[in-house]
Amino acid sequence: MAALAAAQRLAAGPYQAARGVRYEGVGYAFRQLAQLIKGGANVRVATVGMGGYDTHENQGTRSGGQLWRRLNELASALAAFCTDLGDRAADVTVMVSSEFGRRVASNGGGTDHGHGGVVTILSGRKLAGSLLGSWRGLNDLDSGDVPEYNNMFDVYGSVAQGRFGLTTAQVDRIFPRRKYTPMKLYA
Description:
The chain has a domain of about 90 residues. It contains five helices and two strands. It has a two-stranded antiparallel ribbon.
């Protein structure tokens, strides 16, 4: 309750982002999170939701389109957030994931509702590499979908284990209905 009260107090006060940082769209949620982190609210875990990815048509390329606009908004928000945090970014790990994957081939103008997807990790801690987990390419599709090479809960659990110093048994309790397989994420 004390943490909630501190967060409410900080959120109610004025906030000035770092020089040159501009938040827009989903960035406003990251701005609030930056305000709490920089204000000393001892944020351990937070979530930011962003809808609008159910794009069945006009996904777009570098010049625009629905999916392009959503991903561009997210990328701009993450860049603003990391810049705003400054040195505090060293203590932050951000995971970006979706509840559904993308198909490789179009299914009616878009590539929605496949079952393989991507989890992107941005971290102030040194990661073990730029590609983490298994990746065997796109030669063996699963009914047109990217196969699941790494279970998302193993990624979540490995981040929790690495960031909070948890044992495998402790992570098993976070996801009690599945077998946790640790992944080497941090160097």
